[in-house]
Structure formats: structure tokens, C-alpha cells
Amino acid sequence: MNVVQGITAALTPLGLLWTVLIIGVATFLHELAHYALARWQGVAVHSFSVGMGPVLLRRQWRGTEWRLSLLPIGGYVEIDGMAPEEDASGQVRAPVRGFAALSAWGKVAVLLAGPVMNLFLAVLLMTVTFTAQGVPAPDRARIEEVVAGSTAQTLGLRAGDVITAIDGQDIPDTTRVDGRDAAGWEGVRDVLTRAGPHTFTVLSAGQTRDVRFDWTPSVNGERQLLGIRYGPDVQATTAPAAFIRAWQVTGEAVPQVLKSFGGLIQRFLTLNLSRDENVSGPIGTAEIVSRAAALSPWALVQIAILLNLSLAFFNLLPIPGLDGGRILLVLVGAVRGRPLSLGQEQAINLAGFAFVMLLMMFVVVRDVSRFF
């Protein structure tokens, strides 16, 4: 199978459509927030594009040219006073009106609006998910399937049973699985790597019982399976409680997301093309969405939550060219009592933009290299 065939086999038309839609909505709302905060402060917005590249359609409305561009991923807003301008003699100079005339906090508000919008969208989607499906309980494992004829079936385990303790010990909220931090329920399989007697405390049909068994992890070098498929237990909740839990989950995700971005940058600097499950490029993302589309609408919602969180946190990184980098330059200017010179700001933003583009190219190359 060649590279093109490998990529084609990993993606589906429906998955590609959902990928474009999810990323498109996230990007549109991100740029719309920048637009809204600029207009709210009286700053003109010259253009708003849905998509990138050549313009297919354009319409003037409320002082802004609204565009539909060819490439269906991404978008941009052209805010007055953010780019250098020409004076009467044709010399390029720093802008003095529009965005440039705002106070430092007014500028920060415009720049911060995009990432905050993605953050709120992720929290809203999590709130809807938790309200409809319940809140995952990290310290309980729900058995989703029992394989016919397996040891688990012989022990009387059934789909819907909830494992609340192992060997007399409560399942912790968090544990370590394959060298990473994970919810406690993910560590259930660890007990099956140890030979000897074990006990699962199981909640079944409202009754608690102990399931005792002797376990041998392997026979003649062949790994033995208990015969269950499991996931986190869920508990019904109200919308307000779901909203609070969504913010808690977002806060808990921050260290992991920052660690993932840090790992990506380290791999980029060392040109390490090995696969990292925590960060995916466009092909990897479309592949994940393709698999999610075949499962359920809720799986797609989970992908949308992750993408919005990633977009929010990535844009807040203090890298010039990103919203976080622009915010940093604004704050540096506020501390100095005067903004950076046009030449200094252009050089810093150009270096940051080049770094981000190279980083994106690296992610794409790493994505494609999986198929060689």
C-alpha cells in the first residue's frame, strides 16, 4: 500500500466533512469574538473571511466585507489599526488609529476574545454532554460488555455492573497508566497483570457483592483475558452541576494540554518524527474524526470539545504571531510606558509566524510519515 492509499484508507468522506465542519465552526466563532470586541469598542473591521485563500464570494454589510474563501479550514478578520499603514508620502509607519489607539486593556480584550470564545464553547459542549449522559466517575469502572464463554461470564459479571473497589481498596480518582496520568478506572487492568487471588467489589442491580477469583496473567506465554470491556461509570447530574463540573474538567486539562504542546515543541526542535498520541496534525485529526463519526454523535461532540480546548490553549501560548504572543507584546509596551517600535514588532511577529509555520509543517510531515 503506497502513501496515498494509506491516507485514503484512514479517512472517510463523512469524516472529512465533519472535520471541516467542526474546525470551521470553532474558527468562525473564534474570529467572530475578535470582531465583536473590536466593534464594541468602536474599531472598524475591514473584512471577515470564512475560509482562507482566494475569495469566492463577498458582500459588504455594516462596514465590513464578509468573505467566503476557497480553503474551508481557518479564517481571519482584518481589524483597523492592527497592520502597518502608509502615510501621504508612501512611507510605512505604525498605525495610530483603530486598534492601535485603544488602551492596553482594550487591546488585550480584543486579542483574548477569540481563545475565550473557544474555551466557553468547549465548556458549553461539556455541560450539554454531562447533562444528557451524566458525569464520568473516575473512581468507578462500569462493565460495558462481557465476552461470551469468558472467565468474566463464569464469575457472573454482567454488562452494567460497576466495579467500585479492587482487593478491598477503593479505586483512586487518578492513577498512572503506561507512564501517563489517567483516571482511576483506567487502572483496572493493572490488577490482571499480577497473579494470585483478587476481589472485585461490584455494584449490580443496586446490590453490592464481592467477586473473588484466582488469576494467572499468562499460560504458556499467552496473555490471558478476563473477558470484559469497561469504561468510566457515569452519574446523573443537573445542568448547573454539569456546568460547574465542565469548568473543573477544563482546569484539570490545562497541565496535560501544556505538557502535550511542550512535548510537541521538544520533538520539533529535535526533529523527532515518532508518533505522539497527544497531538495530531490535520490528517491525524481527520482520521480520529472519521472513527468518531462511525461511532455516535456524542463521540463527535467529544472531538469538538478537545479541538476547541486545544485551539484556545494553543492561541494563548506566548509565541509571537499567536494571540498570546500579541498580548505579551501589548503588556510589554504597557510596562515600558510606550509600545515597541514598528521595526521591533514586525521582526518579532515575523520570527514567531515563521516558527508557527515550521511547527505546522513538522506536524504535517509527522502525520504523513506514519504511512511510509
Please, could you describe this protein's structure?
- By secondary structure, the protein is α+β, with helices and mostly antiparallel strands.
- The protein has two domains: 3-44 and 80-133 and 240-369, no CATH class; 136-235, PDZ domain (Pdz3 Domain), CATH 2.30.42.10.
- It has helices at residues 3-10, 13-40, 104-133, 151-154, 239-269, 282-293, 297-315, 323-336, 342-369, and strands spanning 45-61, 64-79, 85-86, 92-93, 135-146, 162-166, 169-170, 174-177, 180-183, 196-204, 207-215, 218-219, 222-223, 228-235.
- The strands form five sheets. Strands 5, 6, 7, 10, 11 and 14 form a six-stranded antiparallel β-sheet that branches. The chain has a two-stranded antiparallel ribbon with strand order 1-2.
- Helix 2 packs across helix 6.
- The chain starts with a helix and ends with a helix.
Question: What descriptive keywords fit this protein?
Answer:
six-stranded antiparallel β-sheet; 2 domains; Pdz3 Domain; 47% helix; 25% strand; two-stranded antiparallel sheet; alpha+beta
